[in-house]
Write a structure and sequence with these properties.
Strand order of the largest sheet of chain A: 3-2-1-4-5-6
CATH topology of the largest domain in chain A: Dihydrodipicolinate Reductase, domain 2
Structural class of chain A: alpha/beta
Largest interface: A-B, 41 and 41 residues
Shape of chain A: globular
CATH architecture of the largest domain in chain A: 2-Layer Sandwich
Oligomer: homotetramer
Strand content of chain A: 15-25%
CATH class of the largest domain in chain A: Alpha Beta
Largest sheet of chain A: 6 strands, parallel
Helix content of chain A: 25-40%
Radius of gyration of chain A: 19 Å
Chain lengths: 349, 349, 349, 349
């Protein structure tokens, strides 16, 4: 499948926007030809409007693009949204209304009952709700979202266990500083320290997980019938969210069954060999002290979820660790994979 | 109460031994007059035998003590044991056999059915088992132990909740590097990283917690009838173990009841004003993002347990954070407080 | 000498202001009775106006003070200035004009030819310039300043060498994040990284050092006749600025002469036993790998300069390391010691 | 130039050995077919003998190699030496005596008068001394070495300035923990700290720099006639040595001349397009706060030297920063480039 689809990025000059620009570099299907940002930046070259903070240089082809206002007008059919939550609702709806497919990393529409909260390996079927979204909202375009960065890690690890009937999930996160953007966490707060609080994060993990692991039934999205509790902590790590997880399952299974489920897990993105899909979405590590954020998060282009230390839990049934790259699989890479899935489904013409 | 009781430290040149030496400096009851270490060190001055690694200078009075072999002989009646687990069983028993009270930080005898695993605020009554220990072992002396550093933090936070009937506890730790001694954790492993494994730690937390929160009934120690699960992680923090905790309780209570229980908690060490006892064993912090290891662990001379973010848990009943100083309240300070309690009970003549 | 002198702090709610509040707690001469801040805070209690970020609790006696506007009015005779550079000129001059002694940590007046840039152990004689300041400016009050935090460390180490004739100084700093205030350095910039640039810092070190080590001659301050070059770097350390220093001297001396000069150095603050003066202003550490910021900066109440690794330099004559606590000796403690010196000189009635 | 030259690695199971194994993966000329290690490992598969500590998985092709003793026998013609200094002299000489070309990262022969201490961009001409080495030692083989990791960074930055006549160099390093191998620096020493001492490092930087920047004249290596002084510090950074450098030059030049010299610098490895040679050996960064180890060291495959903040120095003539990747350009990559240069010179048949 060879394609050359033009795409744009809303909020392209911010940190998440920069991650989109970097992740899209050399993409086999998508060509970034349009960058939108605030009025303050509009009219400048991307290189002038952007304080580039990522490792590696700014992609040359993008550096010379002129930054546009975040208005539909001449933007490509597909736009990735990295807009700030304070303005995302209005901007994203304007683009959907104007016929664009908005593939959003913002949190604003995630919990809407007619918006898919998509993890392509887990709930590709949720795309079915788009028909209702278009009808109800009267939009020629559409909005799909990806979850919060810590939710993605958790749900990718829980996906293979759905077959065993997930009843209760208790997840304690140790999250990287890059998850807070820039300037983000002051070094005086996090140097040689842990901050046991991230505003709104626990609620997001608890609610989003239930939506993602739920089902699309009778034309509606129905939450997973399970309880989820999250403890969210910030730790002095650059990239990679680590989640210490305990689960209670409906079926009588053993540790080996879980490991087999993790190792054999494949889904639509793998079957269709979507460009950004990892060969194996979940990688089980047998070493006694893995996964570790600094050593593992960047493997597999940052698109896999790493699982380790699967063992029995004296309180719930099993416990294990899950790790994922928060700015790749947890943000820009997630949205791009969502767009790839939609293209492969024929949902974007 | 004015006293001047001579004490010794077994394993005085190692890291835990150094913490004992530092903590005992200026103690109003105990005077450190005897330091024991391996044959290699015996005969040297303490200052020559010891590679001092703690902040602040080595106490002058101790620096000139001659290091002795770890044999009873001329040691004081009370000896604190900071000996390595590989030799602690033999050494500690030799001292007890020779009539000494061994107040140990080593793990070897913690789970013995006739050895108190003591947290003075929580289970002072467990000292009753010493009668059986002396009788069964035929020792003129005795051995008492303090828990693992992460267990102490957890049990101090759970102590005030025992009245509500503890049924299930799920604890995820973020532990400081000082807990691993010296050289301990290689910087290449922990710099900007998390190591989600600490050998033997989860088992210790699960078992020790049940013993400590259990009761001394009919001349025997009976474990708490509750299930405990621990996830143990090392994080790049210098001092202070933070424990994200979820609990299920037998009584119908509310968040405010827990907070009141934490805030009003006082026990024997406070009533008797033992020298190392914190004024309040558990300090509830109302700020939304506390406690934090670097900012809070050293308060109250490192002897209190800090609790915060008490809230409902969608999976068990409540969740909260607990923090304690691992090398003070979790090691040397714990043992010294144990000895103070025993003196106040008249268990050491 | 027993005193009870009321003092105030300008800019008391900011980070430097908080350091003043903390440092003054329990001071034997000075009683903090007045706190000034921006209009936004004026009228509130200090505890409500301040987001306290220091380790340990906010001093109770100060918490209940009402924050005042930074205007002379009812402020005490001595005010410490922790005001932001953007407003310090105007505020400090207003107080001096109204008869107050302004002991400032701000940079605004440091390089004025009639303002002492004071390090009490090094250049107490510079106070002589105050007569000219009062005359020239027509102020009943006066302004004295303390140097930049990294300059203090360097000059305290150079002070004992002044007798040998300092000709050239090349200083490379590794500075703690607390030096940048709050929120200060974003963790994404400094976690596991070095930032080899601190705005304005190199210029300050180069100019201030020459003023401080210069002389008060014939009613004027004359710069030291030496060349100074600084390389300033931010490193992921919480407190303590470390300065790798090479010096060229006018006299033929040996390493041992330097060590003796460091060890024997005492000055007016020590002779008069000023309350905040360290017993020894410069402490030479003989260990091969000291001083180190995390292990040494807090010793001696953070008021001493630690020197180590004195050795020959193949390019200039000697090289060594100097370390000091940047928020104590480098800021609040420096200013308080300045005020103590002035009281002891009878310069404040 | 297409080649397929078999190579071996001495000391292949250690940290430096692992860096060689990783760096040689997919090399267009060299195929790693032989791994040597201590007797303890010999006979095992590489995957069993090695505790792999690098990011990314162990290369499959190497994992199944059988580890050999470090004796000449069946080893390939070219062997890279990552042997420990305690055994390197004997092992490397045995291989040279048996006709092998030993391309060593060990320090043992670096300062021998008949051994090139090679940085291909700087002193390729030093290979001329090999004729004398072979003659004097009577070896059919030969030994070449690469410098210490911090020396390489410094000399690559000084190379372009040699034309201006280098007279004095004062270099203060901030070195990454990976430079100390594994387990290397204990986290208790370096977490939120600086260790201002690295054993033997300052002497190496001072001596090696003079040899590298010297000339091969009249059949002998003659040291650069300049003075070099190094201050070496360990900082909590994972990879990348940063060197704050001041230089005195013989010619009257300006800052712009230095920048031009850095930017235009190209040498034999670039002309011959050696596989591991960076396109530009020295990359000048114009940003005010670069280079930075975490953001820049890995660029250009870790083979370039990054220079920034070129400015006048009030003590010597100019000051600037230099940064390089210590385990790539400073170790394995350096040796591989040395071997590539020697192949391109026809020095290895």
């Amino acid at each position: 499948m060879q394609r050359q689809i033009e795409v744009g990025v809303l909020g392209a000059t911010g940190m998440v926007g920069q991650h989109f620009v970097k992740f899209l570099q050399g993409h086999p299907w998508f060509k970034l030809t349009w960058v939108g940002a605030s009025d303050r930046s509009a009219g400048k070259k991307y290189r002038e409007a952007t304080s580039w903070r990522l490792a590696g240089a700014m992609p040359e082809a993008v550096a010379d693009l002129q930054v546009e206002e975040c208005k539909p007008g001449n933007a490509p059919k597909i736009v990735f949204s990295a807009t700030d939550a304070s303005v995302a609702t209005e901007i994203e709806q304007a683009f959907a209304k104007a016929g664009h497919t908005v593939v959003s990393n913002s949190r604003n529409h995630r919990m809407d009952s007619d918006v898919p909260l998509l993890v392509p390996e887990i709930n590709a079927g949720h795309l079915g709700i788009l028909a209702r979204q278009k009808q109800a909202r009267g939009w020629p375009g559409q909005i799909v979202t990806n979850p919060n960065c810590s939710t993605i890690v958790l749900t990718m690890a829980l996906g293979p266990l759905k077959q065993f009937g997930i009843r209760r999930v208790l997840a304690t996160t140790m999250q990287a500083i890059s998850g807070a953007g820039y300037p983000g966490v002051p070094s005086m707060d996090i140097n040689a320290n842990v901050i046991p609080f991230i505003g709104g994060e626990e609620e997001k993990m608890e609610q989003e997980t239930q939506k993602i692991l739920g089902d699309y039934v009778d034309g509606a999205l129905r939450d997973m019938d399970a309880r989820v509790s999250a403890h969210c902590n910030r730790v002095p790590v650059v990239d990679g969210h680590l989640v210490a997880t305990s689960v209670e399952l409906g079926s009588k299974v053993k540790v080996d069954d879980l490991i087999r489920a993790f190792e054999s897990f494949r889904a639509i993105p793998q079957e269709r060999k979507l460009p950004s899909a990892p060969a194996r979405p979940v990688i089980y590590m047998a070493e006694k002290d893995r996964p570790q954020p600094r050593r593992d998060a960047e493997r597999e282009n940052g698109m896999a979820c790493f699982v380790g230390r699967v063992r029995e839990c004296p309180v719930l049934d099993f416990k294990f660790l899950a790790l994922g790259h928060n700015t790749v699989r947890g943000a820009a890479g997630a949205a791009v994979l969502n767009a790839e899935l939609m293209c492969s489904e024929g949902l974007i013409q």
